[in-house]
Amino acid sequence: MDFEPYRGELVAYCYRMLGSFHEAEDLVQETMLRAWKARDRYDPSRASVRTWLYRIATNVCLTALEGRARRPLPSGLGAPSEDPGTPLTPATDIPWLQPFPDARYDMEARADMRLALVVALQRLPARQRAVLVLREVLQFSAAEVAEQLDTTVPAVNSTLQRARAALTDIGDDSAIAEPDDPEAREVVDRYLRAFEAADVPALVRLLADAVVLEMPPIPYWFRGTEHYAAFMRRVFELRGTDWALTRLAANGQPALAAYARDPDGGHRWLHSLQVFTVTGGRVTRNVVFTEPRVLAAFDLPQRISSDRPHPPR
């Protein structure tokens, strides 16, 4: 039995459940191991290999989620900050939501990986989370989900209704532009050029009035162009104005990896990953990730020569 063709979609499923790319990969490895050990007991008359693997993966995820706190972004913890000069002290005790590196796996359902949706899923109880993803995203039938969760079809339908009701406030993400959308690409390209030029007014012209900026593991966040501009001026004051950025994609959204110059000027080091929500030709949200383990998942060079104008694009 060849389980490998299902690895990518299983990682995406476990990521939606856990909010952590690294944990998702570990749980899929556990799923594959359990499936291999149980292969002699697999009954093709009861379920396809794919459905069977999702049953195992669901049980693995539900076990992993027992007693776990949800993975948030800073905007899910309280009101926005009013002081862009607040010390940048990371909150290492919070299990922050992680981004998903699109290039690592070939999948079709990118729109269902949006950061806003994954954050919203974390607010649901674990079984509601599983039912919603299995039914709404992966399109399993109610009978298949009932089999995967060892429950009944009426129970699945009831759980799905409760999950839908709990997520009514996340809005319609169909207006969010894909990374290869021409308008979104132009916005992000202009943002890249403005950032590399340390041109804060040019950055602000690309932002929606109520733009959100958040930077896990820093526990606070900002709303509005005034605070966004003040924070960016602070970034350039602290880290200099000589940056190089490269395009990529995360969670089905356009993203940029940013390299900052060394104090000695010898190299530029990977500093952060910025994941953009672009709606109506404007950046409405920028989530900036800086944790080294998160950045490592994107297989980017950790440093580039300062003589090189740009990292690979």
Throw out a few tags for this protein.
7-stranded mixed β-sheet, 313 residues, alpha+beta, 41% helix
Summarize the structure.
The protein contains eleven helices and seven strands. The chain is an alpha+beta fold and 313 residues long.
Report the C-alpha radius of gyration, rounded.
21 Å
Structural class: alpha+beta
Q: Which H/E pattern describes the elements?
A: HHHHHHHHHEEHEEEEHE
- Overall 3D form: elongated
Number of E-state strands: 7
Largest β-sheet summary: 7 strands, mixed
Q: Please state roughly what percent of the residues sit in beta strands, choosing from under 5%, 5-15%, 15-25%, 25-35%, 35-45% or over 45%.
A: 15-25%
Count of DSSP-assigned helices? 11
Q: How confident overall, as mean pLDDT?
A: 91
Uncertain segments are none
Compute the separation of the termini in Å.
38 Å
State the oligomer: single chain
Helical content stands at 40-55%
Describe this structure in words.
The chain is α+β, with helices and mostly antiparallel strands. The protein is built from eleven helices and seven strands. It starts with 6 loop residues before the first helix and ends in an 8-residue tail after the last strand.
Ordered list of secondary-structure elements with their pairings:
Elements: H1 7-18, H2 21-37, H3 49-65, H4 115-121, H5 126-137, H6 142-149, H7 153-166, H8 182-196, H9 200-204, E1 207-214, E2 221-223, H10 225-239, E3 243-250, E4 253-261, E5 267-279, E6 282-289, H11 292-296, E7 303-305
Parallel strand pairs: 1-6
Antiparallel strand pairs: 1-2, 3-4, 4-5, 5-6, 5-7
Helix pairs in contact: 1-2, 1-3, 2-3, 3-6, 5-7, 6-7
